[in-house]
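Protocol step 4 of 5: obtain the predicted structure for the target chain.
Materials: sequence only (see below). No template structures provided, no constraints applied. The aim of this step is simply to have a reference model before the mutagenesis design in step 5. Sequence pasted as it appears in the construct record:
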Amino acid sequence: MTSHRPERADALTIAGALALSVYASLQGTWGTTPERIAWWPGLVLSVVACTALWWHRSNPRAVVVVTGVCASAASGYGYLTTPLLFAPAMVALYWLALEVDRKAANLYALGVAVLLLPSAVLTDTYGNVVLAALNPAFFLFLPVAWGSAVQVRRAYVESLHTRAELAERTREEEARRRVGEERVRIARELHDVVAHHLALANAQAGTAAHLVRSRPEQAEQLITELAGTTASALRELKATVGLLRRPEETDAPMEPAPGLSRLPELVAAHTAAGLAVSVLVEGEERPLAPGMDLTAYRILQEALTNVSKHAVGAVVRVTLAYATDALTITVCDYGGKGSAGVPGDEASGYGLIGMRERAQSAGGHFTAGPDTDGGFTVTAELPIHS
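Step 4 output (structure tokens):
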């Protein structure tokens, strides 16, 4: 009974109910002499009941009461109590069941049945009181059951639409979140590449300038290493920026992400810049997943860069401790001028914060602080997944 034009659908339904109830009135009392009962009272009651149906959207309960009273009056007047006679009441109950809960609709159907029960029993011409009593009750509860089923179906379809809209919003939010995370990751990579290589190049250039007169051979070696440092910076910067390319933009191959296999190069570069770096490996070395390998390398890179910037001439001890399910990275510096953990570095939003974010994003833990020897210790524990 639904349509894109509800007024037209309502008019057709009401016209059908009127035709059925008028037809029942014209038949009089089947099995008796038709002249005993006039047809026009039934017509008047049918018109009143069907006119009331026009207000079913604004006052569905009142419409059920009016149509029920009209049906009871028609039955009491002597017309045979059939579904045709109380068709307007059935339509009203159906529309009520679409708007209210099943319990309320059943109560109204029961009320109309109680109204019809006395006249249905008294005017019964077949001598079957039980059938006369059950007949209106059955046909009055039928539209209620139908309307409740339609209401449940509508609620189910609406819930499907709601869940589809929610899923669409969730997918969009997830896409935005991943884009944000990717931007943060690329920004962190750019910071690590630029900060490390510029700090290292600055240290190498300063040392070379200091030694250019007293030790020209060593200064020349540092300048050569400085060229290698800047070239490495350009390669890593190009590879990182290449992540922002579109898939079809593949003009030049990108360098693979660095890992712990490049630790000797990293140590050699900082040693040339004036740091005394030693590396100790504990436990059996195990291959790391590419993402975890990059995280470990970047943490070591950042830690050594901080020492180069804030603890000139320090002695640095790097320890890689492999366990069954974790790799513990420890970087200790002592004996230098300054401290690798100065507050300004952490307050700037990079340095120690960047290392902590990398470790935590990989599911690990990070600690940093001064030690009892007057130096500074950075420790990162990263999980190793088999």
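Step 4 remarks: Residues 3 and 9 are 6 Å apart (CA to CA). The chain has eleven helices and five strands.
Proceed to step 5.
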